[in-house]
């Protein structure tokens, strides 16, 4: 399982970086169990050097218990270290877009105002991401057929600009 996960996580990292989302830290927390500890080196070798693999010590408090999560969860923090999303199964499957979208939102939203951790070109990068999302939505938006002229069918999207 972790080879599929590792390659999908690496693909997502590269995709986001190519879209301009840079300086994102990715950390995989290896499970504390004996089986996972024995396979640690395989997990570490299955990801690039841009993804940190953290090995829990069997005598420490379990990271997932401390974070109120489970081993397959994604915890997404903003640049100020605040938890923005906690995605559990099935939303943490990388074959879906939930993790990608959550990372983009955490990266682009500016909840606390000016920040010394903000990348110089973040506004242009995030504007481009928003534009692409709008174009994708326009492709799937139903076209009026003329049969229901009394009804206004629109998709509603709520974006929060801070």
Largest sheet: 2 strands, parallel
Ranges with pLDDT <50 over ≥5 residues?
144-162
What does the average pLDDT come to?
79
Share of helical residues: 25-40%
Number of strands: 4
Q: Into how many domains do the coordinates divide? A: 1
The helix/strand class is alpha+beta
In the sheet with the most strands, the strands line up as: 1-2
Shape: globular
Question: Strand fraction band?
Answer: 5-15%
Number of helices: 6
Order of helices and strands: HEHHEHEEHH
Q: Termini distance?
A: 39 Å
How many whole angstroms does the radius of gyration measure? 19 Å
Keywords: Glycoprotein, Secreted, Selenocysteine, Signal
Main location: secreted
InterPro entries: Selenoprotein-P_N (IPR007671), SeP (IPR037941)
Subcellular location: Secreted
């Amino acid at each position: 399982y972790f080879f599929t996960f590792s390659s999908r996580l690496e693909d997502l990292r590269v995709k986001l970086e190519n879209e301009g989302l840079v300086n994102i830290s990715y950390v995989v927390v290896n499970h504390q169990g004996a089986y996972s500890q024995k396979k640690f080196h395989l997990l570490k070798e299955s990801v690039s050097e841009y993804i940190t693999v953290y090995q829990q010590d069997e005598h420490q408090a379990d990271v997932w218990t401390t974070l109120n999560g489970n081993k397959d969860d994604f915890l997404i923090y903003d640049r100020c270290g605040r938890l923005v999303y906690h995605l559990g199964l099935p939303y943490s499957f990388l074959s879906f877009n939930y993790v990608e979208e959550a990372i983009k939102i955490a990266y682009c939203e500016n909840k606390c105002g000016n920040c010394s951790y903000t990348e110089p070109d973040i506004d242009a990068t995030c504007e481009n991401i928003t534009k692409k999302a709008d174009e994708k939505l326009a492709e799937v938006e139903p076209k009026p057929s003329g049969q229901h002229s009394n009804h206004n069918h629109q998709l509603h999207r709520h974006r929060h600009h801070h």
